[in-house]
Amino acid sequence: MRNVIPIRARPRLDRPPGYEDDLSFAPELVEAFIAEYTTPGDVVFDPFAGFGTTLVVAERLGRRPVGLEIMPERVAFIRSQLSDPTAIQQADVRDIDWLDLPRIDFSMTSPPYMTRADHPQNPLSGYETLDGDYSTYLRGLTTIYQRLADRLTPGGRVVINAANLRAHNTRLAWDIGSAIGDVLTYERDIVVDWDEPQPWFTNDYCLVFRG
């Protein structure tokens, strides 16, 4: 896979009412990684399923999608997009030890973002609680991926999409990469070259790890 992936458009899957303008993966980005790191029948896991792009693309490509999402309205929407609505569970990924998940061949997600300051909402609670703290957020992600590592098949890959943010000089992608590198083996980073980059980030990355 190349070190830079050009994404020349921002194609979107359908969205529930009220979320039409929210940013998310381009399906082409997910397709590129699934083609590179999986084969038909593999389990593809998204711990922060969002609007379900990873799961929908995985199902379309003949992989077995498995996902978690904390927000009930998003879970309902994802179920409407999948042939197998049981592929998505409404759950807090921080409870992963208690969830009945299969062995995972590949995981790809974009975790909920947080800035270094002035961000009282906790992303890991679906922004529902006001106990946000950047260091705690990074430790929480590290714990999640430490648990996920125990469920990866040998040689399984994990891809995390994150950008470095202009707000409060938040090097989010680099900070996530450093934190997760403590529990998974860092392999490489790939720049996502959007044709219409957003003014609120500097660069967008896909960070690749293996178990």
Largest sheet: 8 strands, mixed
Question: How many helical stretches?
Answer: 5
User: Which structural class fits the helix and strand makeup?
Assistant: alpha/beta
Which sequence of strands runs across the widest sheet? 1-7-8-6-5-2-3-4
Taken from the alpha-carbon principal axes, the silhouette is globular
The parts where pLDDT drops under 50 for at least 5 residues are none
Give a quick set of tags describing it.
8-stranded mixed β-sheet; globular; 211 residues
Indicate the topology.
Blueprint: E1 4-7, H1 27-37, E2 43-46, H2 53-60, E3 64-69, H3 72-81, E4 88-90, E5 104-109, H4 134-149, E6 152-165, H5 172-180, E7 185-194, E8 201-210
Parallel strand pairs: 1-7, 2-3, 2-5, 3-4, 5-6
Antiparallel strand pairs: 6-8, 7-8
Helix pairs in contact: 1-2, 4-5
Quick overview:
The chain is built from 5 helices and 8 strands, in the order βαβαβαββαβαββ. With 211 residues, the protein is of the alpha/beta class. Strands 1-7-8-6-5-2-3-4 form an 8-stranded mixed β-sheet, sandwiched between helices.
Describe this structure in words.
With 211 residues, this protein is an alpha/beta fold. It has helices at 27-37, 53-60, 72-81, 134-149, 172-180, and strands spanning 4-7, 43-46, 64-69, 88-90, 104-109, 152-165, 185-194, 201-210. An 8-stranded mixed β-sheet has the order 1-7-8-6-5-2-3-4, with helices on both faces. The longest helix has 16 residues, at 134-149. It starts with a strand and ends with a strand. The mean pLDDT is 91.
